[in-house]
Design goal:
The chain is mostly helical. The protein has two domains: 7-144, Four Helix Bundle (Hemerythrin (Met), subunit A), CATH 1.20.120; 147-286. It is built from eleven helices and no strands. Helix 1 packs antiparallel against helix 5, helix 3 (58-89) packs across helix 5 (130-138) and helix 3 packs across helix 8. It starts with 7 loop residues before the first helix and ends with a helix.
Length: 320
């Protein structure tokens, strides 16, 4: 019996989650859409490793298709989260029903538009054929034995750790939403890298992923609050601002902004964990692959250069 490639297990799990939830996601399921979107992100994290083993252009085309699908699901997911969060923050009775009902209708309308766009984009991407096409490509892993995926994994983790450290440095201690969003994305990508490395058997370290998840939860909650606040601010309001329900909407927005500031304070106390995770990424990368002196592997191939660190062009390849 041929030995299974170590990437086949995580691939099978991620692809299975994607395919199981796709139909329900398209039909309007909230949790299936969330699970489907997370699966596309994990597949995108895995795919450069698969491409390093298989080579060719088909793997790169599949990566682009995964990116399209993820973006199509994203707008609807944002609407789902906003509606769930609205129910949560108004559940204490402090916001009267008249204001809540108008805000919910506004968010429902936005979500309907996003869903229409999602269906169009998924049809354009021929999403029902994506799973079988990915499976066909990965079936070739059983015949691959180059081990190039470990080099790519190590390089990605090293660069992702550097990106996280840079993002935390730039964010500083001031409350700047765009900079905090960059930290959240960098932490999420590095966490996926750690989890993938563990699932593929390249490392046993799991503590960094847990630390990253804790910070990601804080920043994710902050981001969701900011999105809801922005959508409320964009809601069509009458010119007469003295109407009671308009005042209630303004009060809710102020409450959300206050919670954002509290969450930012919580994040400040978690910055040390992010630096430690970045250090752990560099250490893990060295254990996965001890790079020969004077060489570097590009994300999608096994070509080497004379540089001792990733070149700027290599760095750009990790932003997707």
């Amino acid at each position: 019996m041929p030995r299974r490639h170590r990437l086949e297990r995580p691939f099978g799990r991620y692809l299975g989650t994607f395919e199981r939830n796709l139909t329900a996601a398209v039909e309007g399921g909230v949790e299936p859409l969330h699970d489907c979107r997370v699966a596309t992100r994990r597949l995108r994290e895995l795919w450069p490793l698969v491409a390093a083993e298989l080579g060719g252009t088909a793997a790169r085309r599949a990566a682009r298709r995964l990116r399209w699908v993820g973006r199509a699901l994203g707008a609807v997911r944002e609407g789902d989260v906003a509606l769930e969060l609205l129910d949560e923050v108004t559940g204490d009775g402090q916001t009267p029903a008249d204001a809540t009902a108008r805000l919910r209708q506004h968010l429902d309308d936005l979500r309907s538009v996003a869903r229409h766009g999602m269906v169009v984009e998924l049809a354009r991407a021929n999403v029902n054929q994506l799973g079988p096409r990915l499976q066909t490509l990965v079936d070739g892993l059983g015949r691959a034995s180059s081990g190039a995926w470990t080099e790519v994994l190590a390089l990605r983790m090293r660069v992702r750790g550097e990106q996280l450290r840079d993002a935390v440095d730039i964010a500083g201690v001031l409350y700047v939403p765009e900079r905090l969003h960059a930290v959240r994305i960098a932490a999420k990508k590095l966490r996926y890298g750690f989890e993938l490395a563990a699932e593929a058997g390249a490392t046993r370290r799991r503590a960094p992923a847990r630390q990253l998840k804790a910070v990601q939860d804080t920043l994710g909650r902050l981001h969701d609050m900011e999105v809801l606040t922005g959508l409320i601010h964009e809601a069509p309001l009458p010119a007469v601002r003295s109407l009671p329900w308009v005042t209630h909407v303004d009060d809710l927005r102020h409450r959300l902004e206050a919670e954002c500031r509290l969450l930012h304070s919580q994040f400040i106390g978690q910055r040390g964990a992010l630096y430690r995770s970045a250090d752990a990424a560099a250490e893990t990368a060295s254990r996965i692959w001890s790079r020969p002196a004077g060489s570097v592997v590009t994300p999608m191939s096994t070509k080497t250069t004379s540089a001792d660190t990733p070149t700027p062009s290599v760095r750009c390849g990790f932003n997707g």
